[in-house]
Amino acid sequence: MAEVEYFEDIAVGTTISVGPITVTREQVIDFAREYDPQPFHLSDEEAAQTHFGSLSASGWHTTALFMKMFVAHMQEHGARQQASLGALGVDELRWLRPVRPGDTLRGTSEVIETRASASRPERGIVRSKVTLFNQHNEPVMTMQPIAMVRTRPQ
User: Fold this and answer.
1) What are phi and psi of 6, to 5 degrees?
2) What confidence tens digit (pLDDT) does each residue in 102-133 have?
């Protein structure tokens, strides 16, 4: 197992790449049916009547696909996952382009800020800028997750 990567080991500018993952029609419909059952996520005919023009994944599905790729990366490179304490939230979530069945997504996550917690000395706060791209290298989603990471034991 890799050595634990604590808050103090994380530098602004550090970038990781995640993916790829290909989105299937079945995944789009199954996710929508369960979590976002709007007609343009469920039916080609309904989607054709909207600005989407054809079936598109829910933005929440797109966000979940990034998380799936990110966690897979963390599991492969477990040093930081061992010190992860979850997240405080996400700022500036934007869905820039529709994600369609057949799209292949990949992403980057760049650390843009680190700061020690003022109230909890056992953790630090790490803000990242995430960009998710389709197979045409077009950004389809951006967001800024805010994670908590364990500090090095004294």
Assistant:
1) -85, 170
2) 999 999 999 999 999 999 999 999 999 999 99
DSSP result, 48-110? HTSTT-S----HHHHHHHHHHHHHHHHHHTTTTGGGEEEEEEEEEEEE-S---TT-EEEEEEE
Q: Residue 120 has which token pair? A: 């909890």
Cα separation values, 86 from 114, 133, 141, Å? 15, 24, 21
Q: What is the pLDDT of residues 59-76, one digit of tens each?
A: 999 999 999 999 999 888
Give the residue among 13, 152, 20, 154 at the shortest CA–CA distance from 82: 152
Helix/strand number for the chain, H first, E second: 4, 5
CA atoms within 13 A on the CB side of 64: 12
d(CA 130, CA 66): 9
Q: Full-prediction pTM beyond 0.85?
A: yes
